[in-house]
Amino acid sequence: MELRSKLVELSELKAIKQKKKFLEGCSEEALKTIWDEYERKQLEDVNKKLTEVILEKFSHLMGELNFIRDKYKLSKDLQDNDLLKDDMKKIVGYVTPYLPFVGIVSGGITVAGHVVENNTQESKPKPQKDTRQQTELLQDQPSKEKDPQ
Is the pTM of this model over 0.70? Predict the structure, then answer.
C-alpha cells in the first residue's frame, strides 16, 4: 500500500489532522514527514500507556507484598507525579526496542502479585475454635428447662 493512500486512510479515520485533499496535493517528502510524525506520536502514546501499566503493576505488587497499606493510593500518587512519568516514558522508550515482550513482563508482575496474595492468605493463621472454652461457657449458662418446684 502506497504511503499516500495509507495517510488518506488515516485522515478518514481522523488519526491524523491533515485532510484528504491536502494529502493528495503533497509531495513525497511532505508525505514522509507526515508519516514520521504519525509514527512518532504512536510510539509516544505506546510509551505513555506502558508507563501507566508499569506504575500500576508496581503499585499492585507492593500492595500484595504488604509493603504499603493502599496500593490504589500509591498508584494514583505515582500516576500524578509528572517528573516520574516523564522519566519512566524515557526509560520505556529506550528499553522497548530491546525488550519486545513488555506485555509478558507486565503479565509476570501480575502473576507474581497473585502468587504473593495467595501465599499470604494461606500463611495467615485460621481462627480455631477453642472447644474447651465453649464447653465451659455452656456449662455456666442457666438451664432453660423449668425447675420442678
Answer: no
